C-alpha cells in the first residue's frame, strides 16, 4: 500500500492549526503537529490520524531537536506549514520581541534550511508561512508581533527563490479569523468593523487557502491576503 503523503503543521494542537490538521487528515494526508504540551483531553479522545511531536521553539536547541527527530524518523514531507505563533503586546519589551522572533522567524528559518533532508526528493513540495495582515502595515499595539511576522514574510520570499522548482514557498496573511475566548463583545464589535466584509470567518478559510496553494503548481513567492477587505477601510 502506498504511504500517505505527510504534512507537518507547527503549533497545530489548537484553533486554526488543529482545524487544518483535521481537514487534511480527512483529505487523506498523514499529519504531524507540534505543540509544547499534550492536551489532557487527548487521554480519552486521542487525535485521529494526527501524530503529535512535542517541540518548544523558544530556544535554538528546541528547534534543532525537532529537526533531528524528523530526520531520524526519515520523515518525507509533502508540505510544511509554519502556523505556530505568539500573539502578545509589547509589555514584555525585549522578551516579547525575542520570543516572537524565535517562533515566527528562527523556527521557520531553521526548518526551511533543513528542507533538503525533510522533503520528499521526488514530488513537488509546499512550505506555507502563516503571517498576518498587520505585517505589512504595522500595529501600534503589537509592534514585536507585526515586525516578526514581516520578517517571516521576508523569509518566505527568499526561500521561494532558493527552493524552486522542487518546493513552492508562499505566505498566507490573514486578518481576523477567529476570536479568543476572552475577547469582550466590545472588542469583537470593533474588530469586525475593521474589514469590509465584517465577519469572523473561522478556520475553514485558512484550510481553503492552504489547499489552493498546495494544489496550484504555478504559485510561489507570493502572499495570499485573507483579510475580508481589511485593507479597504
Ligand atoms: N486567530 C486569528 O484570528 C488570526 C491568526 N493569525 C495567525 O494564524 C496562525 C494560527 O492562529 P491561532 O490558531 O489563533 O494561533 P494560537 O494563538 O492558537 O497559537 C498557535 C500555536 O502556537 C504555538 N506556540 C506558541 N509559542 C510557541 C513556542 N514557543 N514553541 C512552539 N509552539 C508555540 C502554541 O502551541 P502550544 O500548543 O505548544 O501552546 C499554539 O497552539 C498564527 O500564526 C497566527 O499568528 C493571523 C491573523 C488572525
Ligand atoms: N498567534 C495568534 N495570532 C493572532 C491571533 C491569535 O489568537 N493568535 N489573533 C489575532 C486576532 O484575530 C486579530 O487579528 C484581531 O483580533 C491576530 N493574530
UniProtKB/TrEMBL annotation:
What's a Gene Ontology MF term here? oxidoreductase activity
Function of this protein? Catalyzes the reduction of dihydromonapterin to tetrahydromonapterin. Also has lower activity with dihydrofolate.
Q: Which family does it belong to?
A: Belongs to the short-chain dehydrogenases/reductases (SDR) family. FolM subfamily.
Annotated signal sequence is none
Instruction: Show the InterPro entries listed in the entry.
Output: NAD(P)-bd_dom_sf (IPR036291), Sc_DH/Rdtase_CS (IPR020904), SDR_fam (IPR002347)
Against PROSITE patterns, the record matches this protein to:
ADH_SHORT
**Transferase as UniProt keyword:** no
Q: State the name under which the record lists this protein.
A: Dihydromonapterin reductase
Enzyme class, one word? Answer: oxidoreductase
The EC code for this enzyme is: 1.5.1.3, 1.5.1.50
Q: Spell out the SUPFAM superfamilies in the cross-references.
A: NAD(P)-binding Rossmann-fold domains (SSF51735)
Reaction(s) the record says it catalyses: 7,8-dihydromonapterin + NADPH + H(+) = 5,6,7,8-tetrahydromonapterin + NADP(+); (6S)-5,6,7,8-tetrahydrofolate + NADP(+) = 7,8-dihydrofolate + NADPH + H(+)
Which keywords does UniProt give here?
NADP, One-carbon metabolism, Oxidoreductase
One Pfam entry for this protein is: adh_short
Q: Does the keyword Magnesium apply?
A: no
Q: Which NCBIfam families match?
A: PRK06483.1
Question: Which organism encodes this protein?
Answer: Halopseudomonas formosensis
